[in-house]
Amino acid sequence: MPIRPPDWDWSFSTDGALALAPALNYEEQSATVAPMPPPGPHRRARATQRRPLQRERRLRRLAVLFAIALVALVTLLLSAFGGSGAPAAAPPPASASRLLPAGPPQPEVVGRIGSLHLQLPVPQSRVTAVGYQGGSAGSLAVDPLGQQANQGLLRRVVHSIFGGSSGGVRWFQLPGGQGPPTSALQVGAAAGTDVYSPVDGTVLSIGTVVLNGRSYGARIDLQPTGTPSLVVGSPLTAGGSKLGSIVDFSGAERQSLARYTNDSGNHVVVEVHPAASLSLG
């Protein structure tokens, strides 16, 4: 009778390791990852093409920003140092009351040269604008009273910091002329408006203003009271003695004051000359 082997003839250290070997080998094979293929040539080409496009977009943005900054700088400089500036908003259209007689103006000094004060020669209700420009040869500079309405940004900043004249008549600096920039006072008003003497004094002469062969009103030379000169003619009272009326110059020339009025810019001009340069004829 053959001898049967024992029921339990199994070694853990030997047979167990052999039993686990296939499983361990399987886990090792399943954990292995195949290496990734290198990037294709088409991907590198796309990246190379994107770089010049991005650089071009950045340069384009910088050019636009530079142009905007340049325009802003030029605008700031023009507004800061410009003397005349852009035309101010025109006053509202004249009312029907301006067609009625207004009488003499209320006493109001608008400019001076030392002790000589120039009063407003036109009734306040008729004034459309007040301006200064260079006068004729030999005219003296007038010191304007009030505030320049078209002064540059830099001057406005200086006046706001250090103070300046804010009351009185608003006036405009006008281009042109031969004398100093403020040697000709222009007071605008509609044609036909009465004009009164800007000073106390005496009439020295009355002449005709001729332009392009046509007569336009009169030039009246006045001798202010208190200055050394011959006393000839009728006495005058500032703001009380009527000299004449404003004529229509719109058909003869383009008037500078028209930039700041709602009409053709008709006005009366007041200049101050040394006594020796005035004619007595």
Structure description:
The protein is an alpha+beta fold. It folds into two domains: 55-86; 106-277, no CATH class. The protein is built from three helices and 13 strands; from the N terminus they run H-H-E-E-E-E-E-H-E-E-E-E-E-E-E-E. Strands 5-6-3-7-13 form a five-stranded mixed sheet, with no helix packed on it. Strands 2-1-4 form a three-stranded antiparallel sheet, with no helix packed on it. Strands 10-9-11 form a three-stranded antiparallel sheet, with no helix packed on it. Strand 5 (147-148), helix 3 and strand 6 form a beta-alpha-beta unit. Residues 23-29 and 78-88 have low confidence and may be disordered.
Low-pLDDT segments = 23-29, 78-88
Largest sheet: 5 strands, mixed
Count all strands and give the number: 13
**Any idea how many domains?**
2
Helix and strand content put the structural class at alpha+beta
Question: Kindly, what is the distance between the CA atoms of the first and last residues, rounded to a whole number of angstroms?
Answer: 176 Å
